[in-house]
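Notes, p. 3: input format for complexes.
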Amino acid sequence: MRPARALIDLEALRHNYRLARQLGGGRALAVVKADAYGHGAVRCALALQDEADGFAVACIEEALALRDAGIRAPILLLEGFFDADELALVVQHDLWTVVHARWQVEALERTPLPRPLQVWLKLDSGMHRVGLDAADYRDAWQRLRALPHVGDIVKMSHFARADEPDCVRTAEQLANFASVTVGLAGETSLCNSPALLGWPQARADWARPGLMLYGVSPFAQANDIAAQLRPVMTLESKVIAVRELPAGEPVGYGARFVTERPTRIGVVAMGYADGYPQFAVNGTPVAIDERPGRLVGRVSMDMLTVDLTDHPQAGVGSRVELWGNQVPAAQVVAHSQTSAYRLLCAVKRAPLQYVG
Ligand SMILES: *Cc1c(COP(=O)(O)O)cnc(C)c1O
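Output follows (356 residues plus pyridoxal-5'-phosphate):
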């Protein structure tokens, strides 16, 4: 059997959730959208269900998959409903919904519901993606407050640049949120992972950690709190062939690596079709039989190549970690023109195996 696999450490996931929740000082929705950033939403939610205050997903399809698996905790739809027809399902499955646009307020006004719905009313405080404008926010809040079928209203917003330490834009978004929502009753939710880790002023009733749950820092720089996270995913495979080459020989597509000395090349069963970044550069760190090593040559669809010259003990069958406990995913990110988010979401084909 092909040895490529992604081990998912559910105990590390629980550890990271506890850290996020404690940091926020209130409650925390575990963000498990996009199949829990590639880690398997159902298994991750089941592993967290005894302690998570709730979950957040991108859409109703993702929420229903969790309900079908028996998850009873609150589930928030981060983009709300995509059309008014979904509202019946939202109530039937006891979901919470973001409201980020005026048409959604109007749809709620037109649609009587059998039970009160919890709404998270989103302000565009400066990211300019979704959210009500400052000019519409208070009016929307009053109109929703007047509806008998709207229950609690949580005030929320989202930061564009919380991963940049001391970025003035985040401070501006915070001030904007405070001034628009002043005097409106109810709880507040602002923090994604970088805000939780880097912006204590933004902590509020509810946090919405995503990336940090999976044990990866959102920061390019070192961060003391992020250093306490434990990697959840270990992507690994094995050496399936070895080449002994003299100096001056090209390796792989496009001759992106040329040997500079007599070199032993190990071919690993892992490629970009598994989600390993295609454009990881020569020297991207890997671990070979638990020792630091490096990628050389261009990553192909099903295979990649590593330098075994300084690993005389290694050969066919040696274990290669692409990222995980020994190779921080953030280091792979730094070598491959991608983001930690995309790195994790891209994992596929390599089967997920759960431990803990
Ligand atoms: C995805 C998402 C989050 C989680 O963000 P991370 O940076 O992964 O922690 C939080 N809030 C909203 C609105 C999101 O879309």
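The chain has eleven helices and 18 strands.
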